[in-house]
Amino acid sequence: MSVSERNEEELRSLLTSFSEGLSLYQQVLAAKNLSEIKSPKVDNLKDETIKILKLIYAHTTKIGIAFRPPVAVNAAYSQVKEVSQFFLLLISTMSLYEQDSSYSNFYTTELIEQVRKLVSTYISFLAELQKLEFDEKKGENEETVDSRLVSIGIIWDQCTTTEVLVTEGNLGLLKKNIKQSIKIIEDALDEFGEWLEDPQKYDEADPFGLGDVASEDEGSQKEEEEVDPSLVLLGKRWKEKLKLVKLLLSSLIKSLPDNEERIEGKDLDIFDKEQKYLIEQVDELVAGFFLNLSLYEVEKIARIIEKQSGHLIDLVTNLNENDEKKVKWLNIWMERFST
């Protein structure tokens, strides 16, 4: 036996040690305790991460080929050894993202979570490889082989998803978050429109589906409340204003700076937090109409939305360093929204 040749026992031992190492990585990522990891210096963190992900993708493919029954032990050992080193590098880069102030917390949290999922899938993949009969002839025990192929496909998808996240960066994820907020507003507008068509009927129909929870005695004791006509008028007005809020968010996506290197991660964290708070208040407002709250209570929520919209405009203006071309439309929007 030459020095370079490996046997089944050594390969299985490598699979075990690799899996144990990944389990440790998984714990570190879940606890977000990356400060203890020694990280090498890299010239371009984004490019380095993408390169590592591509290598994991490619070598996973090679592992799949090497483990086709009968297993090519030498080739399999070599590929598993290499991909284990790539994972160590990948985990090390995650520590660098945490240390880099140009990356927002919401971005590093999402990136670390995607890498944690990849690690988790790889642990399952290695367990499936351990179940293989290495000297098995091709075509035998196809169920085990099929499960291995499924894991490889999941790993490919996770590598690609993480690579896209790295490529698009802070701003890409922020835009995605804003698009999710827009979808929430669209859903709220649909439900709100139904309420405005017949507020009384919608109120009696128990829009939140809580009728089964309340006892019949409670239902009989509670007198039906007429929806305040002033509340309906306010609702019609705010249906149009919510359309403008949706327009604001859609336009904010286009108004974010093109170069994220100009922006501190903490500033993006503030913007993301504030746009999510705006959506929370939109939900509160629509719920207030559904629940037939007092005019005072609903108007109070409406004022918060108005104030929060203005706050977002101030934030995006600051992010663009008062660039007239980027923020000119904001004043026009505010004038229209205030009428």
TrEMBL record:
Extent of Acidic residues compositional bias: 214-226
Entry GO CC: nucleus
Domain Cyclin-D1-binding protein 1-like N-terminal, chain residue ranges per copy: 50-198
Pfam family, one: GCIP_N
Region (Disordered), start-end ranges: 207-226
Source organism, top-level taxon: Eukaryota
Matches recorded under InterPro entries: GCIP-like (IPR026907), GCIP-like_N (IPR049317)
Protein name stated in the entry: Cyclin-D1-binding protein 1-like N-terminal domain-containing protein
Transmembrane feature ranges: none
